[in-house]
Amino acid sequence: MRPCDVAPPRVVAVDEHVIEVRGLVKRYPDITAVDGIDFDVSRGQVFSLLGPNGAGKTTTVEILEGLRDPTAGEARVLGQDVRSGYRRIRERVGVLPQDFEPFDRLRPREAVTYWARLFDHDVSEEAVASIIETVGLSNRADTFALNLSGGEKRRLGIAMALVGQPDLLFLDEPTTGLDPGARRELWTLIGDLKRKGRTILLTTHYLDEAEQLADDVAIMNHGKIVAHGSPSALISQFGGGTTIVLAGAGRGGSEALMARGIAAELHGADLFVHVPMAGQVRPMLAKLASIEIPLSEIYTKRSTLEDVFLKLVGARMEEGVLAA
Amino acid sequence: MKRILADVTAFGRQYLRSRVGTFFALAFPVILILLFGAIFSSSGTPRVSLAVQDMDRTDASRGFVQALNNTTLISYQAIPPTASFQEYMRANAINVALQIPTGFQATIVRAEMGNASARVNVTLAGDPTQSSFGIAYSAVAAVANAFNLKIANATGVVSVGETPFTVQQFGYIDFFLPGIIGFTILTTPMFGMTSICAEYRTRRFFKLLATTKLSKAEWLAAKVVFYVLLLFLSVAIMMLVGIGVFGMKARLTPVAVLLIIAGAFEFTSLGMVLGIFVRDPGTGEALANAIGFPMMFLAGSFFPIDSMPSFLQTIARALPLTYINEGLRATMVLANDGTAVTYLLVTLGFAVVFFVVGARGLSWKSK
Ligand SMILES: Nc1ncnc2c1ncn2[C@@H]1O[C@H](COP(=O)(O)OP(=O)(O)OP(=O)(O)O)[C@@H](O)[C@H]1O
Ligand SMILES: [Mg+2]
User: Which class in CATH covers the domain with range B46-160?
Assistant: First the structure.
């Protein structure tokens, strides 16, 4: 699943944490949005907060952006306390907020110039053009933002986040609401930014997105981090092994397998047979082939973050919404 | 400073590109001027008939009446001193009437002797919503002003009657236009800012701005600069229409220019203060209406404050717009820069308070 062109993990000193979070809590009168979380983000890493709607991702990110004050706990960004130190680091942090909306009646070229000046960067036309080029908006640079597509608007948002040449980028659900094509294009862009050495904190409720982009994933639910590690570590720890899918086998198939003592999970019309160890896949396939069950297709799949998520949260997630 | 300029440029671009908004900001006052101007000039008689009850019957009071008559604005008719002022007006269907109280001359004499607290009020009664009232007012105010100047210069009051008064040049439009400038100084920035605050909050532009180095005070300052420029454009158009279409004689004075700047500063900031309470465009509009409409009427944009019942006058004295309307009239029509400068200072005072409250009170962050 992971693209093979990802740079090898960089060795970083322990103290090179761009973000440090300890016991962070954010309480609202009716809900504890963030309930005591700890994590570190190292320089050059893509760190992903993964979780369903209302998990507390945006709350966490906005505390780290200095836009909300935490109720308790510690959070440091680029060595500064987020409560008091943002004056010193504003220009080193780029922010793409959730559901970013651009100024309707500015063209991308104007918006990027405007934003750069708000960071005290006296920008040349070339510098602006190069940022717009980076996010792939060159051919739309002189269109009113009003008329940009959803994906193009997000790109503009990323361009605005990039004007200060930030060390650290916050991208809050950068691909939510986009079509699969636009999502993949943004993944490429985020991959490029990572290769250029930017540290990125990315929130998402797309498991494949976290798996594709992140070096480190923290799965969040109800304000807590329920698991934390690299995607592969999480998969081998919580997902493990291989799943054989009997597509279209249905309830009849499930009963036929049960009769032979094989455990299977029914998902819609499909039957999932979980095989923890690689060596058992072939014998199990042979065994299944010998059973007379009607099915449209049989295939295997390696565990993904989706399986990890299902196991940890106890539900699947579709567009950020948990389903039983 | 560079950040403020960048914000003025970007904001101005967006504002001017939203054509409907710009059109209304610039065209609405012009429509008002044309409308009121047309109503007045179509009424035919350039003179307003003014009934005067002279209770004093001295040289000074007769001089005052004579001076009024010398203006081309007034045709004079007398109310017998023995009649009850208000009843006589009602019985004879008189629209506008002036009463000169007893002791008029005595007070003037005391003033000429250097008694600084000597004050005498002439009373102008009538329906303030009528344009005739406005003209009568401007004539009486100008004559009163001329009297005051005479007293200050300690020349004979009696000679007033023969003096050709500057008021002769002024007409209704001269009285009306400063009020419309005041009205525009109130509405354009204040309604604009509340709706901007609502939009910036619901569309999360405030949060976006909070991630830059621009401070709230700088953002507000940029809006002030923009609205000053926009209002100058608007005032220029109004003056051209007033002069070109109605032959207006009043001109912008330096103090008027300063009042316009201070007023833009004041009402842009007040808009931001209201923005503190605005959560969505609906409440923004309601709040701006609730504050803006009473203020534009009570503060004498369309008719003079002195004509209002005294409890409303007390309220008017507390309204920031009053000082702009009256200040503009004082400097543009009545050539009374002393009053105008005082009102300019009052306006600056309000402006600084609103600016500080707005820049501090408005939050760009979430809870
Ligand atoms: N200002 C607030 N007042 C009260 N409750 C809030 C506030 N902000 C967030 N919450 C609550 O805190 C919880 C976490 O919200 P948050 O926006 O952090 O979730 P999220 O993980 O970003 O979800 P999504 O995927 O929908 O963006 C939610 O239940 C939300 O309703
Ligand atoms: Mg969120």
Answer: alpha beta
